[in-house]
Give the backbone structure.
Amino acid sequence: MTYLYSRTSAADKRSALRAGLATGGLLRLPGAFNPLTARLVQQTGFEGVYVSGGALSAAAGLPDIGLTTLTEVAGWAADIAASTDLPALVDADTGFGEPLNAARTVQRLEDAGVAGCHLEDQVNPKRCGHLDGKTLVSAEDMVHRLRAAVAARRDPNFLVMARTDARGVDGLDAAVERAKAYVDAGADAIFPEALADEAEFAIFRAAVDVPLLANMTEFGKGPALPADRLRDLGYNLVVYPVTTLRLAMGAVEAGLRRLAADGSAAGLLETMMTRSRLYEVIDYDGYSRLDADIADFALPPDA
């Protein structure tokens, strides 16, 4: 049988994410800002795909300040999730509004085929988690946001994660207390944003008994801990949210400058993905076989 896009159903991807978390090991989720990148994430051996709000907004030419909408994020996430057999975890910002908006966000993302999402405790519109000047909603308001999200999901395997940005605003103790309240509200996992050092990662792990996510974004406030160390610390997911976008855009900018200077792309060919490799990644042959199997027919002589 020829498959287009993913061979794995959304329900099976959600089950796979839950099973991976149940092992107590570490799942690695590089960011994918488009479907082609998600295919490469799968082909290079990772356990999941992360859909970063910051990467999506940047790819759209926008700052990460809550300008993208639920409709846009769900549409992009659906295309990314459909392109891979890996489970996709989506950054759902603040849930795009009040508790009822968060409830609708969860159902819309379920329909988009993703495996889970995280909601954060910033005010709407939000700011990037590694910038100063963030403002939090009250812990009570975030509890309402989470309770609405959890109540709205139809697939119990859809992962609802709570992100807290309290570390950078009110300190580590406040972040831990919020995380505990969010678990009590039904959050399946916690994303403590912008922890300052390895000791804080350990403190958070000791205090919270659900799966924890580590954000290993480049140029951020926290340390760049390798996967083996995060595994030793007891973390269950690690995301590299903007890595692929930064790699791609760094190469694009350098290539364009060279093209402008040289007047030709001849000197850039060794840095490019070849036509044959691109066709391999997108499974060009698979589409051609399916088309030939379906459309290869002849009308009978007396038609």
Q: What stands out?
A: The beta strands are 27-30, 49-51, 88-91, 116-120, 159-164, 189-192, 213-215, 237-240.
